[in-house]
Specification:
single chain, 134 residues, alpha+beta, eight-stranded antiparallel beta barrel, 55% strand, globular
């Protein structure tokens, strides 16, 4: 009887330890994302534009957009605000401190790669991001 109880205890403990909580959509979004491909209106502008978005578990975000013009020094603009996500719609909403909002439709979020699209001033912008921190 003691062996049976001990075996049952060991089995239940290993089952409990083996269970790992699956990451939620929000969990997968948290981290620093750096653009590896950028298209604006279908034109590849990856070499002249970099976007880094840091999504924090506190529901805040920081974003840096660097544009390197053909002539002149690169220009970096920084933004902050709050974010929310809709797993069902596969959307990320950035609410800037200025009051503006930007919605990203996420077509893929696998491992450390995220593919997203947003429309700003009726211009489609497609991104491939790589997660650089967790």
């Amino acid at each position: 009887m003691k062996k049976f109880i001990f075996s049952l205890l060991v089995l239940s403990l290993t089952s409990f330890v083996a269970c790992k909580k699956e990451a939620t959509f929000d969990d997968k979004l948290v981290g620093e994302w750096t653009s590896t491909a950028v298209k604006v209106a279908g034109v590849d502008v990856t070499t002249s534009n970099t976007v880094v978005i840091t999504i924090q578990s506190s529901r805040e975000f920081d974003a840096e957009i660097t544009t390197a013009p053909v002539f002149g020094a690169p220009v970096t603009s920084s933004y902050t605000g709050d974010w929310s996500a809709d797993e069902l719609k596969q959307e990320l909403l950035l609410k800037y401190e200025s009051g503006e909002e930007e919605k990203y439709d996420i077509s893929s979020l696998e491992g450390s790669i995220m593919k997203a699209t947003t429309v700003v001033d009726n211009v489609r912008r497609d991104f491939v991001f790589e997660k650089t921190t967790r």
